[in-house]
Amino acid sequence: MIAAVSILLYFNLGNTDPLNLNELSGDKNVAHVKVQKWADGKDATTIDATIKIVHESVCSGVRSADMKYLCSSHFVQTATQLLLDGKQVNVVQIGAHVGFESNDPIASVLTSFLDKVASITNATELRQNFHWTFVEPSPPNFKRLETNLKKNAHLCDMKGVNAAVVSDLANNPGQMIFYGISDTIDPETGFDSKSNKMLPFWFSQISSLSREQVFKHMFVKGFQHFGLDIHDYVIETNVTSMAYSDLMKQVLVPTNNDKIQADGPLLILVDTEGFDCNIVEGISPQSSFLPKYLVFEHIHCSDDPTTKHLHGMGFTTRKFDPNVFAIHQDLAEYWPIV
Predict the structure, then answer these.
(1) How far apart are CA 278 and CA 204, in angstroms?
(2) Residue 2 domain flag
(3) Domain count of the fold of the chain
């Protein structure tokens, strides 16, 4: 998926808090109480079998390479076990485009997962223990993302952040120039009101902090194929950037209800059109926000130094074009099924 560079802007630039579409209300332990009620009388074998049922229901027939690797690496079992243990689960998409579109690598599977867990446990409150953050810098794309998050607000606790994520090593992240595509192109249908032509919907995903990245030959040729000049569609916008760790401090919910600071998220997906490796390499081995699972694009950067950095932090990696998939070594403690 070609997605915009994740630049962290907020819905309201005068407000430094990201929009939370599902404010938690009432007793935070309601979900855990209901799960405990469901678990009463069930032995560990039965609960493990239930977790396996969730996994098989969600993962059978998955098509995207991202989800195939996540499924084969116990992601669904891990997330289910955490929720059944009354813990909070955090997923962060950096470069989310408009969310829930046809080539979103995880939207349909996570939707199925949340529906299945809520159905089996009869504890819809569990949805509020699953925290899904969408980060998207492009103003027109983010406007549509906001709409889509509202449409899907029943799924779980969702946050939308309109900003650009940069490396923790970046000096004084602040206002930056972002190169995106004109809002004359609908980000979901691809219809261009300027030319009255139906274009590939992924044209609106051509955006980056790098001008060079946007004007790559393949993108220029793509517009030329429809008799258009990409220069007529690229819009420069000033956006606010935020370092990786600052983003995590802003959006993550502590795994345990009695903790003040959040752990690293269960899953991070990075799709920033040329800056993925830079963001990943900037994560410190001592970071409090190391994810358990990490997926990022490597086709626009040199992934060898990045994977070496990940190995040094305790990750194992596997490359599958256009992405690199990484799992942290301490994940094994959560695996209910081997």
Answers:
(1) 23
(2) no
(3) 1
- Whole-angstrom distance, CA of residue 26 vs CA of residue 304: 48
Domain that holds residue 95: 7-334
Residue 1 lies in a domain: no
Report whether 11 contacts 159 (CB < 8 A). Answer: no
| Residue 68 amino acid letter | K
Of the candidates 325, 314, 310, 203, the one whose C-alpha atom is nearest the C-alpha of residue 270 is 325
Six-digit token string for 80: 């289910």
Q: Which residues of the chain have pLDDT under 50?
A: 1-27, 335-338
pTM: 0.85
75, part of any domain: yes
- Residue 90 pairs in a beta bridge with 131
C-alpha pair distances (Å), 53 with each of 9, 87, 333? 39, 20, 20
Count of all residues that appear for the chain in the document: 338
Instruction: Note whether 44 and 128 are within 8 A (CB).
Output: no
In degrees to the nearest 10, what's the CA dihedral of 168, 241, 264, 303? -60
HSE-up (13 A, CA, CB side) for residue 90: 24
163 close to 137: Cβ distance less than 8 angstroms? yes
Residue 171 is encoded by which pair of tokens? 């000096």
C-alpha distances (whole Å) from 337 to each of 44, 109, 292 are 12, 19, 16
Q: What angle do helix axes 75-84 and 30-39 make, rounded to 10 degrees?
A: 100
Tens-place pLDDT, residues 146-182: 999 999 999 999 999 999 999 998 877 788 899 999 9
In a domain, 170, yes or no: yes
Token pair listed for 213 = 């990245």
Helix (H, G, I), strand (E, B) or coil at 54: helix
Strand, helix or coil for residue 165: strand
